[in-house]
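In this supplementary section we document a worked example of the pipeline. Step one takes a protein sequence of length 194 as its only input; no multiple sequence alignment statistics are reported here. Step two produces a three-dimensional model, which step three serialises into structure tokens for compact storage. The input and output of this example are shown verbatim.
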Amino acid sequence: MKLEKEEADYVATLFPEVEDIKQTNLRQKVIEAWIRGWRYGGWKLIEDIPYAPEIPKISNVEHTRAATRLAAEIARILKKDYNPDVNLDFVIAGALLHDVGKTLEYVDCAKEHIVKGPKAGRLIPHSISGVYLAMEVGVPLEVVLIIPHVIGETLVKTLEANIVKYANNLIADAVMKKELGIMQDEYVKKFMKL
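The serialised model returned by step three reads:
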């Protein structure tokens, strides 16, 4: 897939944390995964994708950025004080990609924002479609494994994956408690049914 500069600039503007990824190739692959999901999902704008269909006023971009900033800060502290081997690039890339699959999962939840979309919608969890998008553009396996780990769908556990998982869960709990009056585990039981 040829990256159009205009599309790449748009994604980088939405997710300025991508510039914190030191590895140029990884940074480009994160951007490419978002572009691919945006194209495949048929969204007019990436920022139209909701964090959750039941919480439409918070965008997936807003949530992803918050989870990324928190994960990066946790990683910096752990790297400085406890483990210099924490790969900050992998944490940032994994956090930026942990919900990229929502570009495909939520197409049936926001018809007014869709130009066209895949038929599967919520039948394929965003962790699965996110792995697909990341692998399709060549994101390193160490980063790809962070995507399903966020909701416990992998046997491989790395420190980087745990950092993203806990940052995501904290942000999710804060948002859901404020917006719905429930925590994430209650949300999953109530709304995440096929």
